Amino acid sequence: MSKKIMLITGASRGIGAEIALLAASKDYFVVVNYTHNASAADQVVDTIKKNGGSAVAIQADCSKESEIVRLFQEVDQLGTIDTLIANAGIIGGQNPISETTEKQLKELFDINVIGLILCVREAVKRMSTELGGKGGKMVLMSSVAARTGGIAQEIHYASSKAAVDGFCLGLAKEVGNAGIRVNAVRPGLIGTSIHDVHGGMEVIQKWAAGVPMGRVGLPAEVAQTVVWLCSDESSYIHGAFIDVSGGR
Ligand code: NAP
Predict the structure, then answer these.
(1) Superfamily name and number for 4-244
(2) Which of 84, 103, 129, 133 could lock 179 by a disulfide, CB 3.0 to 4.6 Å apart?
(3) Among the atoms of ligand 1, which is closest to the Cα of residue 40?
(4) Secondary structure class of 190 (helix, strand, coil)
């Protein structure tokens, strides 16, 4: 394959879907991963193809090691992975700490932290020049919640994203000399279906009053930063965190 292969976890909707559309327009071959919503993933792929790009949808639950391993094996059939966007994530419920359950935390950390780390492991095995690979790029999807503690009743989510930030710092040290460039993006309040649990756009538009720029961000605004971080224009940026949060 002549095009660079970019795998985006959780790309059927929201921020991941926008990254897929933009990356395809920059000539990446895009792998659109999803877990439940095949029709949404197919729609992203169809739009990319209609616009002259190349993409494929691959189902895999990125909270499960066996499915992550299979996902990367399916990507291997297409060619050598160049870029990983570890984007899939959930909020994991809303409740005060006094009502937090082990089951809830395990489900949340399985996708937001353990699944993300296992995706990175599979990518490093293929990209690391120390292991015979050709190098690559990674962007890990964090959140401003990692440094603010998150919104009320979602501190479990904030702690999972803080884990992503710590992992990113250490990973950058471990793989920086192996041809892999890794960074994290911290979105703020972005208009996607992740906020359906909060009452959707109508409710989060009201929260925008607390954002210095006074508005909700677009998934495309996060996508622009992510795709730039994968490009040669950001060639000396490594182990960095970029907030896309309207100043929040
Ligand atoms: P979203 O609209 O809810 O979309 C979530 C995506 O993740 C969907 O494609 C979903 O696939 C996929 N997904 C969920 N669980 C998965 C799993 N176990 N395995 C594989 N894919 C899975 O979310 P979003 O707002 O775009 O968020 C994307 C990332 O940005 C998340 O990590 C989130 O924490 C982070 N973030 C978002 C905001 C925000 O305000 N939106 C702010 C900060 C950080 P299906 O369609 O198949 O369910």
Answers:
(1) NAD(P)-binding Rossmann-like Domain (3.40.50.720)
(2) 129
(3) 46
(4) strand
